[in-house]
Amino acid sequence: MAKLVLIRHGQSEWNLSNQFTGWVDVDLSEKGVEEAKAAGKKVKEAGLEFDYAYTSVLKRAIKTLHYVLEESDQLWVPETKTWRLNERHYGALQGLNKKETAEKYGDDQVHIWRRSYDVLPPLLSADDEGSAVNDRRYADLDPNIIPGGENLKVTLERVMPFWEDQIAPKLLDGKNVIIAAHGNSLRALSKYIERISDDDIMDLEMATGEPVVYDFDDKLNMTNKVKLGK
Fold this sequence. Notes:
Elements: E1 3-8, H1 13-16, H2 30-45, E2 52-55, H3 59-71, E3 79-81, H4 98-105, H5 107-115, H6 152-172, E4 177-181, H7 183-194, E5 212-216, E6 222-227
Helix pairs in contact: 2-3, 4-5, 6-7
């Protein structure tokens, strides 16, 4: 049966500086580039071959996908970019330093904003200069569906239509798929695939640049999960 590989982008410049990133289009750090290339080598060593590739519209994920495919000699694989695989939108927290935010609001509150399933962060208004409403890559979207902030529950709700329309049919057809995306959009997919509870999903970590390989039966039930560790 088909294989699905999920990979969180390599370390970004804002991962390095400990800032909330969300939909801000931050680049990979030097370490992130190396992580992505190393992931591609592991994919090649594991003999994984893909029929389709998916990523977000944010360059840290796009570049990670390209490095992985290049290092595994699969840069030709058909690729689709979608906003539905974007990182969760951190609202008004975007750009803030996580340590300084914890000092201001308390560790417990910041942990809830970062890890809880259904608690929203402080929202970013549509007229804020940092709002995605002003970004032309989302120009074709109804402004009413462009978020001002998301939790994992909302992130899962906007990822699932893409899973059902695009990814699941490919897997059911026996095609191998790679998704290079973000910590929370991939946590949302993992929650669905592995049937993780709302409480337990708080503890799931997605390491940067680490491919996670899923196997499925012919009804798309997960049968195996392997991490290609760093």
